[in-house]
């Protein structure tokens, strides 16, 4: 798949932002006044910034409101609803925490649940696609949620929670890569089933429909940069999980905490780039590109 | 609405004969022509006369080589457009309701004024049937020429999709695949019409007729075999001497 910067920025930032909102909704850390304002400002900047970035790849962003209409069938529509509800409820909760010095536990809990639901619905947009076997796995939502929770705990400055969550997220990431690499072959879809000619012999793409490229090839048959995938995985793993883990182990300082968050952010963005760039769409089979 | 109908009154679709298609791409051109000039946003081209031309097409013809284990390779031309699936994943993923499947005839369409151009429907289609128009920012797909097939301003013979009307080889057939007595259904039954990527669970309405088996060259050669067999198994006389002499030179095979 084409790794569009808008979608990578969106899933990375909003995942982190909603992760932080989840912990803030649970009252972790238990803050008020200006400190609370800073926490909420960071969470909203990430979550809303990410959502705005996601509209950049639309052909008609001015019609984006129409996307709320099909929540009965569309995960993308459900994501829109969850995000709006999470941000609204957490906004009310934030007003209470920041200005009134009181927090409603129920409101925070609802906001926290919808924050997680937003991350889950985002992941389901990808998970539902049978056409991309690497995404069409139960591990995909687990990976999105575990990364969001680890990043949220890291941003919330909750070392005792962040350490185990980082280990879990790292483990899930490893599993995702391991099973993802086998997913396309395991799906049973190949040039034989794509053309229906597989039982007659070996099918080879002889001539593409056009001499030039097209939307399908640009969007679904991204191959550039795959050769560095293994190295990028190692770098992503070190930055997203290993380095923040080490930085949390040393005695707390704001500098180290900031470094841990930045390292995690870059690592997750890299992992998300790989998530798209390595995803193989079955339509590539028609072009002999799998 | 992007919820799929439980069932459709008719299942209008195409039957494509892979045995007959000659790969002339006439259907590609007529499709582009009709659908640029009629219903919906035109099918745009980018850099059409430049170094890197590309454009939106609703129908593309691939060519494949099939190499059986025992006999000769076969070239198969393979037109591909929207299959108007019964269980169309492109419809249910749409967040705005722009994509829909019609109850009356099963045609999958896009309401372009509702399309936000998110591209998710194209992601969900295994067949590459949907293309986001780069000029209009909306999703384009085969309409089964919905503006031809019911168009009473056209002579009756023209009330079929443009690709079907154009095909000079008669490789494309149009009709109701939900009616077991229709010509297209009979054709599918007779020729073992098949689905593309059945494992995707999309239940395509369009069917492909597999190529008929070819005569085998081995059977034919038997008649003339005595005449065609090589006369000299081993070189003799002067040729034999020359063969050995050349082999002995530096670089020879001996």
TrEMBL record, chain A:
Keywords: Membrane, Transmembrane, Transmembrane helix. The chain crosses the membrane at residues 7-28, 34-59, 80-100, 106-127, 232-250, 256-275. The keyword Ribonucleoprotein does not apply. It comes from the Bacteria. The keyword Transmembrane applies. This is Dimethyl sulfoxide reductase anchor subunit. It comes from Ruegeria haliotis.
TrEMBL record, chain B:
The keyword ATP-binding does not apply. Residues 12-42, 73-105, 106-135 form the 4Fe-4S ferredoxin-type domain. InterPro entries: 4Fe4S_Fe-S-bd (IPR017896), 4Fe4S_Fe_S_CS (IPR017900), ET_IronSulfur_Cluster-Binding (IPR050954). It comes from the Bacteria. It holds the Pfam family Fer4_11. Keywords: 4Fe-4S, Iron, Iron-sulfur, Metal-binding. This is 4Fe-4S dicluster domain-containing protein. It comes from Ruegeria haliotis.
């Amino acid at each position: 798949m084409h790794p569009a910067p808008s979608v990578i920025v969106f899933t990375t930032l909003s995942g982190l932002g909603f992760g932080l909102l989840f912990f803030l909704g649970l009252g972790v850390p238990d803050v008020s006044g200006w400190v609370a304002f800073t926490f909420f400002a960071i969470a909203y900047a990430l979550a809303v910034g990410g959502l705005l970035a996601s509209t950049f790849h639309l052909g008609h962003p001015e019609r984006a409101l129409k996307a709320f209409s099909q929540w009965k069938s569309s995960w993308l529509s459900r994501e829109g609803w969850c995000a709006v509800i999470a941000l609204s409820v957490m906004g009310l909760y934030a007003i209470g925490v920041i200005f009134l010095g009181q927090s409603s536990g129920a409101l925070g809990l609802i906001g926290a649940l919808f924050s997680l639901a937003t991350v889950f619905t985002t992941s389901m947009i990808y998970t539902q696609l049978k056409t991309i076997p690497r995404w069409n796995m139960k591990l995909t939502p687990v990976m999105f949620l575990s990364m969001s929770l680890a990043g949220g705990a890291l941003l919330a400055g909750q070392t005792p929670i962040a350490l185990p969550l980082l280990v879990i997220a790292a483990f899930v990431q490893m599993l995702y890569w391991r099973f993802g690499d086998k997913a396309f072959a395991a799906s049973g879809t190949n040039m034989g089933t794509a053309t229906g000619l597989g039982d007659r012999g070996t099918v080879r793409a002889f001539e593409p429909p056009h001499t030039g490229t097209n939307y399908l090839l640009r969007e679904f048959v991204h191959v550039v940069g795959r050769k560095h995938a293994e190295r990028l995985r190692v770098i992503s793993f070190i930055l997203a999980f290993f380095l923040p883990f080490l930085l949390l182990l040393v005695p707390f300082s704001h500098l180290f905490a900031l470094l841990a968050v930045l390292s995690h952010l870059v690592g997750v963005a890299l992992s998300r780039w790989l998530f798209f760039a390595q995803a193989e769409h079955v339509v590539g089979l028609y072009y002999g590109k799998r | 609405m992007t919820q799929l109908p439980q069932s459709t009154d008719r299942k209008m679709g195409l039957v494509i004969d892979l045995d007959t298609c000659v790969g002339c791409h006439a259907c590609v051109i007529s499709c582009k022509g009709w659908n640029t000039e009629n219903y919906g946003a035109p099918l745009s081209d980018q850099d059409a006369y430049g170094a890197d031309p590309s454009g939106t097409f609703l129908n593309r013809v691939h060519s494949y080589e099939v190499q059986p284990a025992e006999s000769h390779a076969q070239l198969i031309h393979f037109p591909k457009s929207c299959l108007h699936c019964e269980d169309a994943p492109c419809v249910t993923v749409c967040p705005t309701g722009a994509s829909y499947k019609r109850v009356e005839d099963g045609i999958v369409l896009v309401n372009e004024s509702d399309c936000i151009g998110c591209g998710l429907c194209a992601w969900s289609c295994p067949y590459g049937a949907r293309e986001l128009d780069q000029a209009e920012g909306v999703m384009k797909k085969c309409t089964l020429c919905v503006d031809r097939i019911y168009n009473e301003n056209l002579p009756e013979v023209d009330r079929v999709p443009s690709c079907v009307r154009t095909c000079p080889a008669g490789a494309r057939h149009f009709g109701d695949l939900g009616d077991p007595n229709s010509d297209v259904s009979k054709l599918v039954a007779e020729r073992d019409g098949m689905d593309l990527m059945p494992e995707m669970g999309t239940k395509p309405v369009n069917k492909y007729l597999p190529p008929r088996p070819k005569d085998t060259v081995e059977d034919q050669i038997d008649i003339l075999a005595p005449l065609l067999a090589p006369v000299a198994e081993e070189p003799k006389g002067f040729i034999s001497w020359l063969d050995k002499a050349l082999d002995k030179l530096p670089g020879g095979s001996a």
